[in-house]
Amino acid sequence: MKKNYFYLAALSVMLVAGYVFYQKYQNVSDPTPPLRERQGPISTTSEWINTKAAIQGLQRKLREKPGDLKSKLLLGLAYMQEARVTGEHPYYYPAALGLIQDVLDHESQDQVLIYEATVAKATIQLSLHQFDEALETGKEALKINDHGAAVYGVLCDANVELGHYEEAITMADKMASLRPDLKSYSRVSYLREIHGDMPGAIEAMALAVAAGFPGLEQTAWATVTLGSLYEKTGDLKNAAVQFNKAIQFSPNYAFAISGLGRLAVKNKDYKTAEQLFTQAANIIPEFSFQEELVRLYQQQGKTAKAQATMVDLLNGLEEDQEAGHVVDLELANIYLELGKNPNKALEYALNEYKRRPDNIDVCKALAAIYYQKQDYATAATYLKKAKRTNSQDAGLVCLDGLVKFRLGDQANGTTLIQKSFTINPYQNTLCSAEAKNLVNKALSKL
């Protein structure tokens, strides 16, 4: 009896200890982040069936062998792609980053694995707009392997976003020399665009599309980006061709659907535009689709719809912020253009300026904000930095003309405004609306 009692007592102690251990550590374990079921049209595709099977296979491997670093890296990469496809950035990017950081923390001797994980980490940091961190991570990857094209891609992107444009060109050239493909051509295209060479940008993006495999998300992205380049030059016909081409191979590609929505707005077909923006927003929770809806509702005087959509838009961006996604520039532009609140916009723009004072888009945003605050001299200061790459962005040229006009140089101001509408006659911003009125009044006095 005593012997049995002893065993029972010992077993009870072990069970209690085990329960206490479980309660203490159940929330600090590092389980594999679960895959989320897709919703809507993207949940019924063969691509989702294949993706789901592949991810579940990786998860099964990790349950059987938690120390399988290669499977953990592949799962992280799969979650990065899932973020792109679904728009569920607040969930998938932190999940992917956690997996990849765990790979790096194990300090494997496999240098290929460490290089790929380091590049992946930098890519996620870029997606989260953590550009300084991405640059440093990219430099760490370069120390491991300076012959891989991918590392030059992340270094190019980080330098672009930080406003280090000469360095970005060097990185893009190096990438293209190592691997001339969709990823390198698309970076060359963007650098040509911000340096004012729109024909060259279109040419390079067309090469990117040609280098892609039809039906892949990356190819659809490049095709839509090519369409957007045509759109920026006022060539709506060719823009539509590219958006429809993307939809032909990827029927639920929300960015192509939204692109057709923008073209419908330009053609004053507001009913179709609303349907297309709503369709895109129902596929993935991308803030730019809601932004377009708010702008459209405001343009039509649908105040209640505009306000409700604006609330959803801001709530979504707040969720992104909480997940580590820096969206201060996006918020600055939204509060200026849609919220008509330059003071609130300025708070966010200055936050972004502290991080990357040399970026031309950040400087352009500040110039537009100070213009709306009627501080034209300060606007001109930021415009000087925004124009230093000779970008031929119609909005930037228009803003430059407005500032010159307000500072007394009406002749050059008028010329620049007219030039901006030659570049893109379909501008639809606060500045473009005011610019049209100013030029019409000035010309009527002649």
From TrEMBL:
Parts of the chain that traverse the membrane: 5-22
Source domain of life: Bacteria
TPR repeat windows: 220-253, 254-287
PROSITE patterns: TPR
Keyword terms, alphabetized: Membrane, Repeat, TPR repeat, Transmembrane, Transmembrane helix
InterPro entries: CellSynth/LPSAsmb/PSIAsmb (IPR051012), TPR-like_helical_dom_sf (IPR011990), TPR_rpt (IPR019734)
UniProt cross-references to PANTHER family, sorted A to Z: LIPOPOLYSACCHARIDE ASSEMBLY PROTEIN B, TPR REPEAT-CONTAINING PROTEIN PA4667
Record-given protein name: Uncharacterized protein
Organism: Adhaeribacter pallidiroseus
Lineage: Bacteria, Pseudomonadati, Bacteroidota, Cytophagia, Cytophagales
